[in-house]
Amino acid sequence: MTQPIIRFEGVSKAFGTQTVLRDFSLDVEPGAFVSIIGRSGCGKTTVLKLVNGLLSPDTGRVLIQGQDVARIDPVALRRRIGYAIQNVGLFPHMTVEKNIAYVPAISGMEEWKGKQCREKVAALLKQVGLDPALAGRYPRALSGGQRQRVGIARALAAGPELLLMDEPFGAVDEITRGQLQDELLRIHRESGITVLFVTHDIAEALKLGTRTLVMDAGQIQQYDAPSRLLAHPATSFVERLVRRSRVFQTRA
Ligand SMILES: Nc1ncnc2c1ncn2[C@@H]1O[C@H](COP(=O)(O)OP(=O)(O)OP(=O)(O)O)[C@@H](O)[C@H]1O
Questions:
Q1: Residue 40 lies in a domain
Q2: Which of 13, 44, 231, 245 could disulfide-link 202, Cβ–Cβ 3.0 to 4.6 Å?
Q3: Domains identified in the chain, total number
Q4: 185 lies in which domain range?
Q5: Which of 15, 30, 36, 12 lies closest to 224, judged by CA?
Q6: 14 Cα: distance to centroid of ligand 1 (angstroms)
């Protein structure tokens, strides 16, 4: 494999007396779409937060393109990594435009000033399937699905290499969820960005991932193409998980 874009090297992480990750190692190849699934509390969000530096490992290292996350300047890290979470976390007192332009603005990106900023926001809104006319609205005047799309646009704004998504579609109805999934697949195909996507939904994990990471109790049960998960579950845990899925269409 070419140099992994993300590498976990023997990472352990505990909160107090609770060990969440134990000697966790993982390589993610550039351009992969990794769907991460496992029981509540198994450490999925912890994995994402170790990548974007919101948490630090107790032992081991997390590398992005060979660089230790602990040594990357936090502002640069924020530019390189988009983060989208359930319920979005948009700033309520800022318009859609200001929300989307937030990371580029705090990073002082020159091309995000004045008219150019408006053009960039309009292009991003179109990319996530929204009407650019929404740029002047406040989050409270958007539907849940629209807010979710704005959250994705914001995560993509600074042109990151990596997109971390933590159950981003958990709070929307089935139809909107299907549309958001399809748009995300298109964005992934067109941009070649690497995505780590946490979900509780095995059908979603199999539909979206080029690779699926199944975790249990802070350890990797299987890290494989979805079709291999279905055909060759590595553990009884994975077998039970995929047996529950009635969807047999996978991406890879
Ligand atoms: N800051 C923290 N302080 C103490 N415990 C924490 C902290 N963050 C996470 N934990 C604990 O670590 C464990 C793993 O949390 P994490 O959020 O990674 O799980 P998860 O797999 O994403 O769960 P869910 O699917 O419910 O979102 C949980 O038991 C959680 O309570």
A1: yes
A2: 245
A3: 1
A4: 6-15+26-93+161-250
A5: 36
A6: 10
- pLDDT, tens digit, for every residue of 119-144? 889 999 988 888 999 999 999 999 88
Q: Residues with Cβ within 6 A of ligand 1?
A: 15, 20, 38, 40-46
Does 21 map to a domain? no
Q: Which residues pair with 116 in a beta bridge?
A: none
Give the strand order in the sheet containing 81-85: 81-85, 162-166, 194-198, 33-38, 211-216, 219-224
CATH of the domain at 74: 3.40.50.300
Q: What is the mean pLDDT of residues 25-37?
A: 96
Would you say residue 103 lies in a domain? no
Q: Which one-letter DSSP state was computed for residue 32?
A: -
The minimum-distance atom of ligand 1 relative to the CA of 218 is 14
Give mean pLDDT, residues 237-249: 77
Side chain identity at residue 88, one-letter code: V
CA atoms within 13 A on the CB side of 57: 23
Q: Name residue 154's amino acid.
A: R
DSSP annotation of 167 reads: S
Confidence (pLDDT) at 65: 93
Select from 37, 42, 47, 197 the residue to mutate for testing ligand 1; criterion: most ligand atoms less than 8 Å from CB. 42
Q: Within a domain: residue 128?
A: no
According to DSSP, residue 134 is labeled G
The pTM (predicted TM-score) of the whole model is 0.90
Mean pLDDT of 54-58: 95
- As a whole number of angstroms, the distance between CA 239 and CA 41 comes to 20
Residue 155 CA, chain-centre distance (Å), reads 9
